[in-house]
Write a structure and sequence with these properties.
185 residues
Length: 185
C-alpha cells in the first residue's frame, strides 16, 4: 500500500533539499490554481502568467509557510495575489473574450452560451464578490478556508458569496430575454 505524502510533508522535504517534492506539489495543485487564475483574469494567457508567477512565488517563499493553514490555502492566497497584481499592472477590467478553452463551471458544462453569459456576469461583479464566489462555487473551498485566504471574517465571506450570487442571478436574468431573442431571430 502506497501512502501519499501530505502537502506539508512534501514542502518539508523540499525545504530539506528534495527539489522533486516541489514538482509533486505543483502537479497536485496546478489545475486548480490555473482554473482560479483563468476565472479571475478572464483569459488563458493572463491565467498562465499568473499561475507561473504564483508557483515562482511559492518556490521562493516556501520557507515562510508557517503552517497556520493548509498548504493549499496558502498557495491559493499566493495565486489570488498574483492575479490581482497582474490585473493591477494591466490597469484594466477583466476581459471576457477568451472563454474558449475555459474550464466549465459545473452546472453549465454543456451550455456554451450560458457559460459565456456567466463569464461576462462574473466580470461585472465587484472584485471581492467575484473572488468569494469563485473560491466557493468553482474552487470548492469552504467558508472558513475562504476567510483564511482573504483575511476577512467568516460572516463577511458568507455575505460576499450571498451578494455575489444574487448579483449574478440579476445580471443573468436581465440578459436572459436578450439571449433568447437573438436565438430566435
Amino acid at each position: 500500500m502506497v501512502v501519499e505524502r501530505t502537502d506539508e510533508a512534501l514542502l518539508g522535504a523540499f525545504l530539506a533539499g528534495d527539489t522533486g517534492s516541489f514538482d509533486v506539489l505543483m502537479g497536485r495543485h496546478e489545475d486548480r490554481i490555473f482554473a482560479l487564475a483563468q476565472r479571475m483574469t478572464g483569459n488563458r494567457f493572463d491565467a498562465l502568467d499568473a499561475t507561473q508567477e504564483a508557483f515562482i512565488s511559492a518556490f521562493k517563499n516556501a520557507g515562510k509557510f508557517k503552517g497556520n493553514s493548509a498548504f493549499s490555502t496558502w498557495l491559493y492566497r499566493i495565486a489570488i495575489n498574483a492575479c490581482t497584481d497582474l490585473l493591477r499592472k494591466k490597469k484594466r477590467q477583466v476581459p471576457v473574450e477568451d472563454v474558449e478553452g475555459s474550464g466549465p463551471v459545473r452546472q453549465v458544462e454543456d451550455d456554451v452560451p450560458l457559460r459565456l453569459d456567466l463569464q461576462r456576469a462574473l466580470a461585472e461583479l465587484n472584485p471581492e464578490h467575484r473572488e468569494a464566489v469563485l473560491l466557493h462555487d468553482v474552487g470548492g473551498y469552504p467558508y472558513e478556508d475562504i476567510a483564511d485566504l482573504t483575511g476577512v471574517q467568516l460572516g463577511t465571506v458568507k455575505s460576499r458569496i450571498s451578494r455575489g450570487r444574487k448579483k449574478l442571478a440579476e445580471i443573468l436574468e436581465q440578459r436572459g430575454p436578450q439571449r433568447a431573442s437573438k436565438e430566435t431571430t
